[in-house]
């Protein structure tokens, strides 16, 4: 009788502990030993985390983004706020775009330190969540503000007589709405762990490894926040804006080709084509690969399938940060006034001296025209000789 009771107890224990181990097992491809907080990854993912791709190439990219983005966007924001007297809707959108880039760029030294430390995050879970939030906030802010610029560019050409004051109010309202939307939509990023201690590697990753329970029910509850966020944002803040941008630039080119025939119009058309090319390059390098890979990555995680494209996934996320370097070229091609202010800033010329030179030049030009008119009227007879 006692032997039967012992056998039954042994069977119960054997059936309970494997299930418990499954529920606690977490990782992209593998489970952890019971009682540990470490996450298991497969050999491919471990190799990528140790490779020069993440420990050499990524720090180089982020260093370029930090140096170029900090200088270019800092100068752009300064020009838009302090050197531009008349505030147009386009300058309002570009100032907000530069601010979004700056808010991300100031956090990049943490990313550089993380990758140079062999992908070992030393700054704790809260700071990792803040970094991830600013990373994706910058991405989707850039997409939405570029969309606004594209629509505004078409509107100026199609409706040149629209009231600027009313348009400025609309632009300010749209910018406020975008910032509120980005901050509220980033809440899911704070609701799940972004750091993961990797088993056997003695490192703690920040966002590069997603913690996934083996149990299907626990996997759903663990992934519901990131899956919702990335599926929602990829649709609302990327794919829909892409359609809007394509339609806006198609209408812009159509309007320019039908309404403009003089040299000024030809110049405007060339400028529009260059702007479209810059926006297209920005999307192809920064936003299209990263958003596609985000959708694929989390779809595979939700289905419990191994992500064989893990290297492409993290590389696409790294390259998406290059938008902070490319955005200033959008300002350069959109605004003639911005180009002029940048030139004057680099030459250390104040706005007063520039205005004084313009006034002097215009007065000299007017005086020359007056003299030529007087000499032409007094020397009429000699001109016939």
TrEMBL record:
Disulphide connectivity of cysteines: 128-206
InterPro entries: GPCR_Rhodpsn, GPCR_Rhodpsn_7TM, Pro_rcpt_2, Protea_act_rcpt
GO CC annotation terms, alphabetical: plasma membrane
Key words, A-Z: Cell membrane, Disulfide bond, G-protein coupled receptor, Glycoprotein, Membrane, Receptor, Signal, Transducer, Transmembrane, Transmembrane helix
Listed GO biological process terms: blood coagulation; cell population proliferation; morphogenesis of an epithelium; phospholipase C-activating G protein-coupled receptor signaling pathway; positive regulation of Rho protein signal transduction
Compartment(s) where it occurs, according to its Swiss-Prot or TrEMBL record: Cell membrane
Pfam families linked to this entry: 7tm_1 (PF00001)
UniProt protein name: Coagulation factor II (thrombin) receptor-like 1, tandem duplicate 2
